[in-house]
């Protein structure tokens, strides 16, 4: 408790120091580029650290969700990728201990990406293989859908699946047929933003990690407008100190999970040793 209290105080002190800029970066999980943006007028949303939990350091986190009180995680990695020497996986993990309770390995030709669960059905994206896997809650594969874009982040609004592909777009799909229903461009201060990554739908808004950036963008799904951002720099700085072996280019903030029953929010990053329960400000 003392550890969490001190960390919360440190965050409260440090947050005003950081000047926010949602600078665009690369359009894939392996490449980066930079764009310029207009004057930054987007609201800064504060956050508080509530509790710290262990997180499995072999998990190159691509998707993080809580469903009916249980945490599930989708990871990336195959034997030809420098990021990870193990297959991509679909996991059920213990929130409190970080221990893996169940695991399903993907074929090594697939790089796993975002996951979501809708009506007791698990959906998992792949990065460049143009395949979406569908499972029951026992991790039994039910079907596979094609997708024309890359797969990055995945969430749902209770009716539709919402997909990101590393560009400025959100794609809305029918969960039964995976038919594309609509596409919504995402803008920040009137400019398109790229590198939209891991997604979570929270109380009517889409929250999105921005690849290789310390920002979680709050997006109005109807207009695509970024209405606010959370700067998680203090947490990322902490990770860099306690796990200096991590690659600052690849092992970045990624993973937002919302428990709709308890209203708790959790965030983590790729191969991070810690998972954080946080509370976002207004």
Structural features, described:
Strand 12 and strand 13 (169-173) form a beta hairpin. This protein has 282 residues and is mainly beta. The protein contains two helices and 23 strands. The strands form six sheets. A five-stranded mixed sheet has the order 1-20-19-18-17, with no helix packed on it. Strands 2-23-22-21 form a four-stranded antiparallel sheet. The chain has a four-stranded antiparallel sheet with strand order 3-4-5-6, with no helix packed on it. The longest helix has 13 residues, at 2-14.
Beta-strand percentage range: 35-45%
Number of strands: 23
How many DSSP helices? Answer: 2
The N- and C-terminal alpha carbons lie at a distance of 25 Å
Low-confidence stretches: 1-28, 30-37, 78-84
The largest beta-sheet arranges its strands as 1-20-19-18-17
Structural class assignment: mainly beta
Q: Which outline best applies?
A: globular
Radius of gyration: 17 Å
Report the mean per-residue pLDDT as an integer. Answer: 87
Q: Give helix and strand order, one letter per element, not per position.
A: HEEEEEEEEEEEEEEEEEEEEHEEE
The helix content, as a percent range, equals under 10%
Give the biggest beta sheet.
5 strands, mixed
Write the layout of secondary structure elements.
Elements: H1 2-14, E1 43-44, E2 47-54, E3 61-67, E4 70-75, E5 89-93, E6 100-105, E7 112-118, E8 121-126, E9 131-135, E10 141-146, E11 154-156, E12 161-164, E13 169-173, E14 180-185, E15 187-188, E16 191-192, E17 196-202, E18 205-210, E19 215-219, E20 226-231, H2 233-242, E21 253-259, E22 264-269, E23 274-280
Parallel strand pairs: 1-20
Antiparallel strand pairs: 2-23, 3-4, 4-5, 5-6, 7-8, 8-9, 9-10, 11-12, 12-13, 13-14, 15-16, 17-18, 18-19, 19-20, 21-22, 22-23
